[in-house]
Design a protein that fits this description.
mainly alpha; globular
Length: 268
């Protein structure tokens, strides 16, 4: 692995993780939420993730394992790793209490609707920050592994995950802001929750890289595809529909697939 690949992968992971700060900034500086923008953007992210997972990542994961395992065994390993990725992120999602669901839709306007300090809201915000940090671990690994593999697919994935992190930043910032009466505290804690993505990437590098082979890389890559498909179906599309009209999410979704398809075709 080249040093340049490492720093590109890590830089993209930091960018994706700290984009929770965009949501934090929206809650800190604005008075209202652009729900149409968030709806289209989240749909766009889902389109990018699902398209690249099925068209590029899963086939590439299989292909990299073929020389060592043979075509049939490599295909089985890729499929099993894909569903293992779905299972892992589903278990993480299941372990987080629903009342602190980091993907519950929140709006900046909520801050002005309740200015009284409430420790329960602070607790909600802190638990949401922890929940988002836990969710961001596998997302950080996904961005990092994609960056190590191919910048052509890593950059759109990083942008998609970054967009997906914007409403998460709002979800942390809003309850803390009007629970403490301080938008600044909401901004800082929301921003820090995104650090879990580069931390997850570093842990993956330190633990897995010494043992990395074509087979292990292929399985991790297929698992990344599973993680991104689950995130898209379970988080992005439902949240996109809640923020806006049904068609906003659909148009964003189709647009994301088109952009991802064109970006892949341009680098053939």
């Amino acid at each position: 692995m080249e040093t340049g690949n490492f720093w590109l992968a890590f830089g993209l992971t930091v960018f994706a993780g700290l984009s929770t700060g965009i949501g934090s900034a929206l809650a800190f500086f604005t008075k209202s939420t652009s729900t149409r923008f968030l709806s289209v953007s989240l749909g766009f992210s889902a389109g990018v993730m699902i398209y690249v997972s099925f068209v590029e990542i899963l086939p590439k994961a299989r292909d990299v394992m073929i020389p060592g395992l043979g075509e049939k065994t490599a295909a089985w390993y890729a499929v099993l790793a894909f569903f293992a990725g779905i299972l892992i992120i589903a278990i993480i999602d299941r372990l987080i209490p629903s009342r602190e669901n980091p993907h519950e839709v929140r709006r900046v306007e909520d801050i002005s609707q309740n200015r009284s300090k409430d420790p329960r809201l602070v607790r909600m915000g802190l638990f949401t920050a922890i929940a988002i940090a836990i969710h961001n671990f596998p997302e950080g690994i996904a961005t990092f592994i994609a960056g190590l593999s191919d910048s052509t697919i890593a950059i759109p994935i990083a942008v998609a995950i970054a967009i997906h992190n914007i409403p998460e930043g709002i979800a942390v910032s809003v309850p803390i802001s009007y629970g403490t009466g301080s938008r600044r505290k909401g901004f800082y804690l929301s921003f820090l929750s995104g650090l879990a993505e580069p931390v997850g990437a570093l842990l993956a590098y330190l633990i897995l890289m010494p043992f990395l082979s074509d087979t292990l890389f292929g399985m991790i890559f297929a698992g990344v595809a599973g993680i991104m498909v689950f995130i898209s179906i379970d988080e992005l599309l439902p949240t996109a529909r809640e923020y806006g009209l049904h068609h906003h999410a659909v148009f964003g979704f189709v647009g994301g697939m088109i952009v991802m398809a064109l970006s892949l075709l341009l680098f053939i």
